[in-house]
Amino acid sequence: MAKTNILHVIDTLGVGGAEKVMVGTINGLPQFQNHVVHLNGPDTLISHLPESCKVKNLNYSSRLDIFRCAFKLRSYIQKNNIEIVHSHLPLATLVARIACPKNVKLFTTIHSLPSKNYYAESNLAKWMEKLTYRKRHHIIAICHEVFKDYNECIGIKGAYTILYNYVEDVYHRTEYRKANFNGTFRMVAVGNLKKAKNYPYLVEAFKTMPKNIHLDIYGSGPLEQELKNEIEKHNLNIRLCGVRDDIQNVLPEYDAFIMSSIFEGQPISLLEAMSCGMPAILSDIPVLREVTNNKAIFYKLDNVNDLVTKITAIADHKIDLDEYAQSNFERVQRIASKENYMHTLSKLYLAPELHRVKQPLVFSVKTLLPGLPAHA
């Protein structure tokens, strides 16, 4: 029996949250014949795709190239008998929507808050999103806050699903790890060195942080040199550790996970840390409260002293981290199972007359629950 052809469309195959989710999904759904078309850019993750997956680069160069790429994509869809298209990120989604015939199912995953990320500085991009979005298209939001923001920013027209990101099985531990630090308290942050991650806030906080507290940051990006200069200038206990492809082996070496983001979608790095049994110290934003069900050490983004005070209290054993670590560990088992994610996505792909399905679907331990509240 011939396999169903699914085409995944994305901007690049570089290392990023959306890219990792897509590649993991392809590896997790071998029952389909998977294809990947990327617009251009890095192809770092191509080696992580199965040999059976067909890959094509459209060599996108500028906005003037959108319609050429859409024509090429439509030709690929027809030539390869594609039955389902799944797009990620706004530009790839725009090309996919222009290219996709009406008789082909089109899913789009929203990976971040549109109003603060994708369309914050571009009314044209927002207008194009609204113009090309059709009722027959199916929206997949990675959490309730992302869905809410997309609905307010763009407006939901048809079927949608709220499907939490998953964590690869290598991160899952059999039990949460109890806090075990004495004297030195070591924190870890994981994420690209870009504006949204707000690393300058952490640098500023460490200027008054006690000397027994340390931070290692894993990632790369445009702010790297700026951060490095500030860290060296003030001789701070912060290390920029670059990119690691075995972060699951790195995380357990630390006492806590910290994130200072201004906004997020549903950060995979946080889910991975929770899965390793780590307590989370997080900027107080709605998405991070949803992910952890309010079980984390939250600090104010408008006051670095708030973070310094709380970290100092933790290092002095005045705050018990075990309560947070255990709660995070148990929650991630419920909401971030890769098996459940693949089961749900497979059912969505194969559902008949999908455009008539209007209720949200959220998974929890192999069960699809309509309208599951954010704290589930």
Walk me through this protein's architecture.
Helix 2 crosses helix 3, helix 3 packs parallel to helix 4 and helix 6 packs across helix 11. The chain is an alpha/beta fold. The C terminus is likely disordered. It has 13 helices and 15 strands. Strand 14 and strand 15 form a beta hairpin. The chain folds into 2 domains: 196 residues, Rossmann fold, CATH 3.40.50.2000; 166 residues, Rossmann fold. The longest helix has 14 residues. The strands form 3 sheets. A 7-stranded parallel β-sheet has the order 3-2-1-4-5-6-7, with helices on both faces. Strands 10-9-8-11-12-13 form a 6-stranded parallel β-sheet, sandwiched between helices. The chain has a two-stranded antiparallel ribbon with strand order 14-15.
